[in-house]
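Researcher: I'm preparing a figure for a lab meeting and need a structural model of a single chain. I don't have an experimental structure, so a prediction will have to do for now. The sequence is pasted below. Please return the structure as tokens so I can convert it later.
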Amino acid sequence: MDLVFSTEALDRAKRYAAWRDAICDVYVHVNVKADDPDNYDGFIRETQFGNVAMTECLVSQQLISRRKSHLSKLDKDCYYVQFIQHGSVNVVQSGDSFHTSAGVGALFCASEPYDLQCMGKVRSYYLEIPRETFGNRFAGGQAPLAATMSTGRGLGRIAVEFCSMLASQGTNLDTAIRARLGEELMDVLALAFDSAHRDEPMTEQVVQKARLRSVKAWIEDHLCEPALSPELIAKSNGVSLRYLHALFRLEGQSVSNWIWNRRIELGHDMLLRSDHNARSLTEIAYRVGFSSSSHFSTMFRRRFGIRPSDVTRSRSS
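Model: Understood. Here is the structure written out token by token.
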């Protein structure tokens, strides 16, 4: 993730003022009141997954407030999803108050006034998600203004694991893949919060679909690695090989076929892009996880009905 700001290199006496100037007045448009401004620590890192902006931050004990005066400075209508790694926060919005921690995730509206009372030092992920785009994923076509969910089990656990995985491994992915993963993340989050908000029991099929999205996202991160295998995927995602195959039966195909199809699609995209003009077919084949250009060409013709060279020739003409 890209570092936006950190107090680490600053003199301790200047940290709090620098934090307010750089972050609160410009970056997020909020008021802050630290309990101990002379001993302030904080950082913000950010990355983008399509429509989803992911931020990891550390803040010292403080009250964060967004008021009506801040709303006019906002250029988008969004929700925040909060996943705390350590510490705890009291979230107050529209008369509702709820306590969040490492076991409880929160959803609240970034475009409405709110208070966040950070208890001690708090390290957390925040996901900024377009309000309309996210709301359309809920069963009723609208997300709740504010809500919580357990992140220790079921869909909540899958959601927070998905978020953590993207934060640690998704930074260097291709922009198009990152955008696709952002869409998958919004789907998982909407499923999790919708189920928690309506107090509906989570059916096995709902949990399987959410877990499948999470597994797919992990595969996308490792798609071009030649050693990628169903056994490695299952082990890295904490599921049995049998369960992994069951998940992909929901797609009507095997996990191996899904991987090969995604690699072929990625290779096709690379052949179409002008920034890959200098790469040979063999280079592209190896880059997307094939062990030979002949295997790549065979799978490519089977998938698209044309040869890889036909794609480059049509692009040049």
